Amino acid sequence: MIMLELMKEHYKTLISVPFLTMNCTLALIETIQRYYSFNKREEVGLVSELFLAPVRSTKMIPLDCWDILVNGLKHNKRIAVYKKDPVIARIASNMEPGCRLSSITTRFIGPNEEELCLSLDGHPDLCISYSKIESQQRIFGIPFKEVENDKREYLRIGDEADEWMSKILGIPVTVLHVPETKLSGEPNYPIYVTNSCPAPVPPVHIISISTLEEMNEKSGKNVEMERLRPNIVVKNSESGAEGFWKVIRIGDQLELEQTFMNPRCGRVNALDGFLNTGIYDVIYRHGPFRDTCNRPCLGSLWKVLRPGKVHVGDKIVLLKSVEKSISAPPDEELTEQYMIGV
Fold it and tell me: What is the pLDDT of residue 187?
């Protein structure tokens, strides 16, 4: 009798227990499914090509293998050309005379990449020794035009490099080197007056062949991969899939985390020293992604979680994915380095 009375008093609770148990079980199953859905271990592509740009905006060097360190690709985009205006100012490579940089080729000399050679038809080669650069006087914070706060460390490469580049561009310029001291993904400087936050240190730039091919097919145009300046070109992946990768492993050790999709700029118009102003329009109209400011994005930018050596032919394994593509941050979180082309 006591048992029956207790059941009458608490029958609603007793009836709800199975339903609560079932709901908890379904929630647990969903959580496990989501975990394995976004924390994967599946091969999503192969490294088709590998490129390096020791000097910003010049032609990239094709490689078979390369070291990607905690601060990014070794020697990547550490040398840049600046005009004297009369104070130092950046050169926009999407207009004259900056577009002439896209006709300059670079190559390494020696087994340990200790010397860099710059070449252009009709001009003697310019050779830059990295060991001599390191012995130059360090400069902290150059007074740039339109710069609010510059905390970077620079090394002036020398008079010979300045004269060589000035003759090619037809304006007085200086060639500077930024030592590899910042970690990939750390805040970078200078901060420009029009922005409030520094951009990340130049990360690893990845584009898939299938994404570019689909855009070209839709547009009826042929935008060359060289214009997009990726470090790693991926094959055997689905078009646009890289927009949903969060963490990947390349080869045996290298692990990268996507920071954001790459907002394209007018730099894509420059190739071999000439400008084709219709290229950016193709990407704007037919590019696969948009960021929060409606800028066209093609390719993705990655910071280094675990350094390693990357080889052409390496497998790319997806470790973690996201439900929707990772947009680029708003304008105020990017320096104009990304907007005028690097």
Answer: 52
> What pLDDT, on a 0 to 100 scale, did the predictor assign at position 121?
95
Output the 3-class SS for the chain.
CHHHHHHHHCHHHHHHHHHHHHHHHHHHHHHHHHHHHHCCCEEEEEEEEEEECCECCCCCEEECEEEEECCEECCCCCEEEEEECCCEEECCCCCCCHHHHHHCEEEEECCCCCEEEEEECCEEEEEEEHHHHHCCCEEECCCECCEEECCCEEEECCHHHHHHHHHHHCCCEEEEECCCCCCCCCECCCEECCCCCCCECCCEEEEEHHHHHHHHHHHCCCCCHHHHCCCEEEECCCCCHHHHEEEEEECCCEEEEEEEEEECCHHHHEECCEECCHHHHHHHHHCCEECCCCCEEEEEEEEEEECEEEECCCEEEEEEECCCCCCCCCHHHCCCHHHHCC
Would you place residue 139 in the very low, low, confident or very high pLDDT band (cuts 50, 70, 90)?
Answer: low
Q: What is the pLDDT of residue 179?
A: 75
What span, in angstroms and rounded, lies between the C-alpha atoms of 251 and 47?
9
